[in-house]
Protein 1
Amino acid sequence: MRSLSYSSISTYKECPQRFKFRYVDGMKEAPKSYFSFGQSVHKALEFFYRSQIAAPSLEEVLRYYETNWVKDGYESEEAEKLQFAEGTRIIRAYCLKHADDWTAAFATEYNFNLEFDGVAVTGKIDRIDKLPSGGLHVLDYKTGKSFAYWRPAQDDQLTLYQLASENAFGLSVERLTLYHLPTLKVFHSERHPDVLVRNLRKDIMKVKIAVDKKQFEPHAEERKCRRCDFRAICPAWTAQKETTEQLKQRLEELEKETCRIRRLLE
Ligand code: SF4
């Protein structure tokens, strides 16, 4: 089986059938503007921390942002322009806020490819800083509008990043942070307790076993399915189409029968 990632594990937990379309059958989903936007802003912040000597100027970061802007998935030119302006606002505010406390990052956009309990897991960590104590501080940037403030203490993605960082560098993670870029609010947590790490490992193993057993039943729910690119070919909905077809046929038969009885009564 190919490796798992935070995103593929979440997809499986949300809908195994969607996981199958995406990761087993290798079907592509349509580009989404929110992913493109997130990528563009992440890249600019990676550039902000790329140097080990000094921060680049705001103009350099904004130029980098413009040159590396990801255009995919926008509904219109107007929508793209608005998001581009929002990204400029975020980057400008971020760089101004951190101009004075800038320090070289220990790692940025760090790709990991590790094996936990015999399961290969890959991912990318936005930023890792080294604390004065020698421990690690793992940061994950968020660019979405809505944000759950309680997440840092329980967030599975941060638990995975903690596990991956400790495995990769042999250093203890002492702080975890979700950085909500649109509001520049930071939400910290201490190192996640071992029980969360154990639960995450169990979840990874459960998904691996289910995928090996080819358990891909659809978890249909209107709220999720209306945003799913695979709805037109999903058995949960094509089966329902057949039922609608059958209902139509039954209605036609009933109408014919009503006509026949009417004619008999006339
Ligand atoms: S349409 Fe719904 S049930 Fe089907 S794959 Fe997508 S999310 Fe799953």
Protein 2
Amino acid sequence: MYMPPDEDCNKEPDYEELTPDQRRLAERMVAAGGLLLPENAEAAVRAGFCCEYCGTNMLGSVDVYAGWHWDHIVPKSKKGSNGLANKALACGPCNYIKGKYNPRRFAGPDATRKELIEVAKAEIIRRRARKQRDYIDRYLQVLREHESAGSEPTLTQNVNSPGPLLACA
Ligand SMILES: [Zn+2]
């Protein structure tokens, strides 16, 4: 695996220029009111209003809209900037899972913004699977064992049937 020297790990991603049509759309989004700052509107249009890591439609619902995150592709802790080139629209879970991961370190100093996103995306998929296995699957196993040991089945329904597993409502 290529490991660039430290000074190359915080190199700014290349800037992806918006097309004139995308720029008009960003301006209209800001003019429509709400809380979208001009620079964030450009980043959101560039992202197609989708999480740049998992593809979630960030205008899909109020719940998703409430969880917009601006990920720093090269983390701020690695001297990544607050500039548009270094920002990626992300859903909360992807931003949380990516954490301080720096794709530049693995993609190399010459990787484009798109390549950095691809490297981060692959890492997020790996980490997501690991969290599923290490936390969610483990907790569900404990719940199943707890119930099969004779405790009240108040927490889970039939784990083999579709539908809500947890009685959260
Ligand atoms: Zn996401």
